[in-house]
Amino acid sequence: MYTYDVDAAAMFDDRTHQFEKFGIAASDIEDARAAITDMWTDAPGGWVYEWSRLAQRYAGAGEHRMASLLYGCAKFPCLTDAARVRALDHQLTQFLLAAKDFPVRFDRRIIAVPYRGGTVDVPVHLYSTDGDHPRRPVLIASGGVDTWKMDIHPWWVAFTRHAGVTTVAFDHPGTGESTIPLDEHADEVVAGIADYGRSLGDGRVAHFGASFGGNFAAMSGLSGIVDAAVDLGGPVLDSFTADHADRLPFGMHDILGNAMHCDRSPTVEQLTEGLQRLSRRELLARPGNAPMLVVNGADDYFVPQSDTLCFEGRPNVEVHLIPGTGHVAMSKADEVIPLVIGWLRRAFSV
What is the CATH superfamily name and number for domain 104-347? Predict the structure, then answer.
């Protein structure tokens, strides 16, 4: 893992919509923006330091859910240093303290799934309306390379309450609590989590992935290892060309480099070579797939429109490229999440 050259102010330009959508007050975001001058220093003015200071204030007041959200910002965008690892630990502590007040049943488990001839432990978060998992299908779900399972908690709650599913949230390889890199072996881990979902619920399993998680949901849906899949803003094809990788904004080149467990910034050629191992070109060339919903914003600067539109014309695939919004259509999440819920309900005839 390594640090890299990135402007802290630019990160606010990129992510303020996301932080707000997940429940952080605009005033707290503005306070952090005013205080932060550096992404990496662990001192006043540093990203981790200032977000953690805000989180500590909420934790001291017993507002554990908000403290968890703010520690989630503190560890953003990747675990490049000890300070961010500590922030992730604090986020988990506050999240578990907040769990008693969640509007759904919550359980944290460590499951072992196949990986490269052995197994790897994967922490998962289970959300259900009543704890009776065999009564309903399971939705396995993950986020992107810099936005992880605890950060996306509001969506997991919404899916669980309204889509008729038990939600199993996880950090895919290269992110969050995962200990293994983002590479071509990651598919095996995702398949193992899907198998766990089948054994947990009524035998039916769907896969939701946002951002890079959408890449894995696309893999699951195209290969048919799940019964339904939702790809929200997933890079699958043209995102992995050298030309596109060379133009990634807001430090995404190095966020991906860290997810791949590089020890220094990869060249464009090295990054492209690694990402090509997760291209879904071969799967897209095959006929057949599980029912799929593919959605993204038309103005995404991380993922080209072609990575959404390449699904058009496939059987049992619904495609939406939403105008006036960007990556994962975050600024229109209030429209997109109900769209996903309605689609999941139809997919499982809830």
Answer: Alpha/Beta hydrolase fold, catalytic domain (3.40.50.1820)
